[in-house]
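User: Show me an example of a complex going from sequences to structure tokens.

Assistant: Sure. Here are the input components:
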Amino acid sequence: QKEVEQNSGPLSVPEGAIASLNCTYSDRGSQSFFWYRQYSGKSPELIMFIYSNGDKEDGRFTAQLNKASQYVSLLIRDSQPSDSATYLCAVKGNYGQNFVFGPGTRLSVLP
Amino acid sequence: DTGVSQNPRHKITKRGQNVTFRCDPISEHNRLYWYRQTLGQGPEFLTYFQNEAQLEKSRLLSDRFSAERPKGSFSTLEIQRTEQGDSAMYLCASSLGGTGVSPLHFGNGTRLTVT
């Protein structure tokens, strides 16, 4: 069983719409959760992180965490073509300092 | 703060050769990580240092791979007797250890091509 799962996509949304990206994880003791954006050929860059149940907003981005369901999501409001990238979910477990990444979801925002 | 720096950016080598990559973390960060990423996949954990101590190693890190972080500053990742399956992007990341949440900050990566 994969530790962090994401739909590979591609997820296509029209410009201005809300993009919803989902991530599930298997380690119930996971403590903190991260969303990274990766443009083709580039390295991952941090969007935001969350560690408490509920919502956390940062500009057009909202992270949602439900530890009981072992589920974390990222909402992107007013999607722009420049948001087209692969979005990686990463989970830091209860043991050690390793960050486990999902396979990423490819988002395409259509103008 | 110049961010995480990796060298070289690209490396093309022939199968069987040894290669070494360097990573300079953000200066105040005491944790340094190496990941490997292939096309269409997320980064896979290879190893992690806290200061100069190598605290975790993935089973992906075969005996052909070795990493060092002398004096707790820069780190090197060496691959001996490279194989075509080693072709990937090698990512270095650093974080600030201690209490609280400390995310990874990635360098630009070293893309390895084994011919």
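The lines above are the inputs; the final block is the predicted structure for all two components together. Chain B touches chain A through 24 residues (CB under 8 Å).
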